[in-house]
Amino acid sequence: MTRIDNPIVEFSKEDARRLHHSHDDALVVSIRAGDYNMHQVLVDNRSSADILYYPAFQQMGIGKERLVPTNAPLIGFGGTRVYPLGAVTLFVTVGDYPQQITKDVAFLVVDWSFDYNAILGRPTLNS
Predict the structure, then answer these.
(1) Closest among 79, 78, 90 to 118, alpha carbons compared
(2) Rounded distance, CA 108 to CA 32, Å?
(3) For residue 94, how many other CB atoms are within 10 A of its CB?
(4) CATH code for the part of the protein at 26-126
(5) What is the reported pLDDT for 47?
(6) pLDDT tens digits, residue range 41-87?
(7) Which end of the chain has fewer beta carbons closer than 10 Å to its terminal beta carbon, N or C?
(8) Could you give the angle at the alpha carbon of 95 between the alpha carbons of 38 and 122, nearest 5°?
(9) What does the domain layout of the chain look like in residue ranges?
């Protein structure tokens, strides 16, 4: 069997063309981020940023000194501007051995309340 080193999972509009169900359910996964198993991670193809919510950041035991300052606001949280507390880069593993991928992901840490612990945007999974 051929081993795929860098699998990409994507679905196009063409893939959904013959479906008779009107689904718009979110894709929610579990990942390994750093040394932490994180559940409730939203995969959002429309997001251009990878977001880590501050409560999850705190639970991971990462010190604030690891945050790299950033001053670019995020827009889209209910139409308001949110300024990240900073950015942190973590090794992220998605999938189970042998079908897994590990990458460095630069998360913007946001002090905002949300139903998910993190958001993985489109560039994370495809690049």
Answers:
(1) 90
(2) 17
(3) 22
(4) 2.40.70.10
(5) 80
(6) 998 877 888 999 999 999 999 999 999 999 888 887 677 888 999 99
(7) N
(8) 80
(9) 26-126
Q: How far is CA 35 from the centre of its chain?
A: 16
Neighbours of 78 (CB within 10 A): 7
96 vs 17, more confident? 96
Buried b (16+ CB within 10 A) or exposed e, 2-18: eeeeeeeeeeeeeeeee
Among all chains, which residue has been given the structure tokens 């001053």? Answer: 71
Across the range 2-31, mean pLDDT stands at 66
DSSP 68: B
Q: Name the strand (E) or helix (H) holding 100.
A: strand 99-110
Q: What share of the chain is helix, strand, coil (3-state, %, to 5)?
A: 15, 45, 45
pLDDT of residue 21: 55
